[in-house]
Amino acid sequence: MAPTGRRIRKRKLKAEINVVPYIDVMLVLLIIFMVTAPLMNLGVEVELPRADAKSITSGDQEPVVVSVDAAGNYFLTLQGAPQEALTLDDLEARVGAFARNNPGVPVYVAGDANARYESVVQAMARLKNADVPRVSLMSSTLEVEQQ
User: Fold this and answer.
1) Distance from C-alpha of 134 to C-alpha of 58, rounded to nearest angstrom
2) pLDDT tier, 45 (very low <50, low <70, confident <90, very high otherwise)
3) What Pfam families has UniProt attached to this entry (predicted)?
4) Amino acid 132: pLDDT
5) 57-68 per-position pLDDT tens digit
6) What is the domain count for the chain?
7) Minimal CA–CA distance to 110: which of 76, 71, 61, 144?
């Protein structure tokens, strides 16, 4: 039989990378990051009271009160001692040492209603750095505010 004139064409090899699997992996990673990003806790741990919470009683121990005034100044009241003005570094050192010597003493942060939120958070962060185990926010009840 004679050749019919049909030629077998050789296919040229394409040197391309299939990117579909990479896109799939990237979409899965994007979903993972979108789900886990809101779960990241970047703040200071605070034990918030329940809605039906009663007034906190400190028992037999006098509480340590860290106050932040409207100007952003920090004050410390240690177990009946007069209130004294401190810097953040001094506050961290004094309350940290006091909490190590008196474990279980309640520490309250009282922020003025006109104080910047940043000032209150800085005080709480410094107390956390000083390894103070439990820090609570202090507020007044609605009955006291209405008078």
Assistant:
1) 12
2) very low
3) ExbD
4) 87
5) 656 678 888 888
6) 1
7) 76
Which token pair is 131? Answer: 């390894």
Q: Are 123 and 66 in contact (CB under 8 A)?
A: yes
Range of the domain at 112: 64-146
**Does residue 80 fall inside a structural domain?**
yes
Per the CB < 8 A criterion, the answer to whether 99 and 107 are in contact is: yes
Per-residue pLDDT of 17-31, as tens digits, reads 889 999 999 999 999
Structure tokens at 137: 């926010």
Has this prediction a pTM greater than 0.70? no
Tokens at residue 38, please?
Answer: 């809101």
Kindly state whether residue 22 falls inside one of the protein's structural domains: no
